[in-house]
């Protein structure tokens, strides 16, 4: 066989197994701060409330005077590619060796380049990511001394992928679409779900934040009750908002509601583990006792990485939760929503102890 001619068509790269929809690429600024800083910032502690660019810049300037001293970090402020969806697909790629991609848009600024470099470095495909003229979204993640985090994202002025820019080619060949609920992205979420169903792609939805569920509950209920969401993740605060006002409203009632409309439903409970449902099966899985929380940023996102890996491997529901507990437990051991090489090794050790199948990249 002779060599291929110069300029001959090259085979297209294989479609990512998991595709993340993040209409606006986002950069996280993560800092461990004195909790008193939150007294000067609007919104409730522990949630995620959008702010204007002026407010974000003000918070970043205030962070410098509220930084908590720590010998564990070279820099008190860590900046990286962020966003729930980016955290999940990056975790799937780096921790589990699953081919992943992002569909969305980033700005032609310094933050946009940082997002591109970080995701490329972590083997996330960017073939479906458009660069547009304008700013990239940013988020300040404030972490207290015991690891609790409060988010203040700035999205309003950021470049964004529009619903009419999606095509079936973006989704063709993928197995899962990962999304995060957001009222500002509702049009593109509905468009993506429609195309995903046409292409036979499973849909996973994270409920974002208790404020988002509380303030925009009706559109969320409509989305879930459409039957087009196959897997739904919520933390206990989001779950409480989902069933607020209902009779016997608790996390199990929220799980029951989610499980009625989705094939798989998960409510994460922090240090108390999680509960999950698939059809008539319901399980409760304890958290990993050895996982000491340094920063809760990304805990739910990386739990989703592990759970999706379990589904892709065909594991039972309980084992999917156990893998999720290992991956979620790994990211909270250091600052930010990515898993360090040291914490990946910790995760693999926990998986071995629990008799869970290690990713092929470990061989």
From TrEMBL:
One of its GO terms (molecular function) is kinase activity. SUPFAM superfamilies: Ribokinase-like. InterPro entries: Carb_kinase_PfkB-like, PfkB_dom, Ribokinase-like. Residues 73-337 form the Carbohydrate kinase PfkB domain. The keyword Kinase applies. Pfam families: PfkB. Belongs to the carbohydrate kinase PfkB family. This is Carbohydrate kinase PfkB domain-containing protein. It comes from Escallonia herrerae. The lineage of its organism: Eukaryota, Viridiplantae, Streptophyta, Embryophyta, Tracheophyta.
């Amino acid at each position: 066989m002779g060599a291929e001619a110069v300029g001959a068509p090259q085979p297209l790269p294989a479609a990512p197994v998991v595709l993340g929809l993040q209409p606006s690429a986002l950069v996280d600024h993560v800092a461990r701060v004195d909790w008193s800083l939150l007294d000067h910032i609007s919104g409730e502690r522990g949630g995620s409330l959008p702010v204007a660019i002026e407010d974000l810049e003000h918070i970043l300037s205030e962070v410098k005077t509220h930084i908590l001293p720590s010998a564990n970090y070279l820099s008190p402020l860590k900046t990286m590619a962020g966003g729930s969806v980016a955290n999940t697909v990056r975790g799937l790629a780096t921790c589990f060796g699953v081919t992943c991609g992002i569909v969305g848009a980033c700005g032609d600024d310094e933050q946009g380049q940082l997002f591109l470099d970080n995701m490329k470095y972590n083997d996330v495909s960017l073939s479906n990511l458009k660069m547009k003229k304008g700013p990239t979204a940013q988020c300040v993640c404030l972490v207290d001394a015991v690891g609790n985090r409060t988010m203040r994202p700035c999205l309003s002025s950021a470049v964004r992928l529009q619903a009419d820019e999606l095509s079936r080619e973006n989704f063709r060949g993928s197995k899962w679409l990962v999304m995060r609920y957001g009222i500002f992205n509702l049009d593109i979420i509905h468009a993506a779900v429609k195309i995903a169903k046409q292409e036979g792609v499973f849909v996973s939805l994270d409920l974002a934040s208790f404020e988002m569920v509380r303030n925009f509950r009706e559109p969320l209920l409509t989305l879930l009750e459409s039957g087009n969401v196959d897997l739904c993740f919520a933390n206990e605060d989001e779950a409480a908002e989902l069933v607020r006002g209902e009779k016997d409203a608790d996390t199990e009632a929220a799980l029951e509601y989610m499980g009625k409309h989705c094939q798989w439903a998960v409510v994460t409970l922090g240090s108390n583990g999680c509960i999950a449902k698939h059809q008539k099966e319901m399980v409760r899985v304890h958290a990993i006792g050895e996982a000491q929380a340094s920063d809760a940023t990304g805990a739910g996102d990386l739990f989703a990485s592990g759970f999706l890996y379990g589904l892709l491997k065909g594991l039972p529901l309980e084992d999917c939760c156990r893998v999720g507990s290992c991956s979620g437990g790994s990211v909270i051991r250091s600052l930010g929503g990515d898993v360090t090489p040291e914490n990946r090794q910790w995760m693999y050790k926990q998986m071995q102890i629990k008799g869970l199948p290690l990713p092929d990249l470990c061989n």
